[in-house]
């Protein structure tokens, strides 16, 4: 149905300009809904996937964590025909070590609030991929065999850990800061995994010891290589990240 689905949010909806984001798989636009700034994201996620994401964001909002809040349609649904509309978040990206320490605190709060959360439909965690070949955007069969061995060795160091929701992509473009809050946006890569994947931050802002930080950075590099890999092997970001994963 596409953008025509916006009519399900009422008569006072104005589509503004496109925004960057969405990991290249979504169209993201600035909106006005009933006179208030909002963001609309149109993609190809399944209803089950969108139900998981919007339920997560509503849960975090209820718990007092700053997040983009899904805005319901006029009949009370939180998505329609692949379209999600959320509140717009003002702020700036992190720019200092102190900023990143605040980001680490926000991520740890996310992890505390979502222990035991069910897995996003169709996704696999990093440790699931020790045995599985595919999961959403990951297809290990498309990667070089020796690269898969290295990735699995990095993820094997994460076994037997408590899982929770991870944001999955805490880069500066997905963070909005003000003096009194840190908000993570773009939850398209969020899923259930070990928290280490979120905590390999600049400046080691999460305060991990040397061994824990090494485990986290290796696991994150392996994850990003696997998620971004394309069959031609020409995605330079993925190639670079895979090169950073050491042999076992």
TrEMBL record:
InterPro entries: AGP_Transferase, Aminoglycoside_PTrfase, Kinase-like_dom_sf. It comes from Actinomadura montaniterrae. This is Phosphotransferase. Keywords: Transferase. GO terms for molecular function: transferase activity. It comes from the Bacteria. Residues 17-207 form the Aminoglycoside phosphotransferase domain. The keyword Transferase applies. SUPFAM superfamilies: Protein kinase-like (PK-like) (SSF56112).
């Amino acid at each position: 149905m596409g953008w025509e689905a916006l009519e399900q949010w009422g008569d006072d909806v104005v589509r503004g300009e496109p925004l960057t984001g969405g990991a290249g798989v979504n169209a993201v636009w600035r909106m006005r809904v009933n006179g208030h700034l909002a963001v609309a994201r149109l993609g190809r996620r399944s209803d089950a996937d969108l139900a998981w994401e919007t339920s997560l964001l509503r849960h975090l909002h209820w718990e007092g964590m700053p997040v983009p809040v899904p805005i319901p349609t006029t009949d009370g649904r939180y998505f329609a025909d692949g379209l999600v509309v959320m509140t717009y978040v003002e702020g700036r990206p992190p720019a200092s070590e102190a900023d990143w320490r605040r980001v680490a605190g926000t991520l740890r709060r996310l992890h505390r609030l979502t222990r035991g959360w069910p897995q996003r439909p169709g996704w696999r965690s990093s440790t699931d991929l020790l045995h599985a070949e595919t999961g959403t955007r990951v297809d290990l069969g498309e990667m070089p065999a020796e690269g898969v061995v290295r990735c699995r060795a990095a993820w094997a160091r994460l076994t037997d850990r408590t899982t929770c929701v991870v944001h999955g992509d805490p880069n500066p473009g997905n963070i909005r800061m003000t003096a009194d809050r840190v908000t993570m946006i773009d939850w398209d890569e969020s899923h259930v995994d070990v928290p280490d994947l979120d905590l390999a931050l600049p400046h080691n802002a999460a305060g991990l010891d040397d061994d824990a930080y090494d485990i986290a950075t290796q696991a994150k590099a392996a994850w990003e290589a696997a998620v971004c890999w394309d069959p031609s092997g020409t995605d330079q970001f993925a190639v670079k990240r895979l090169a950073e994963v050491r042999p076992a």
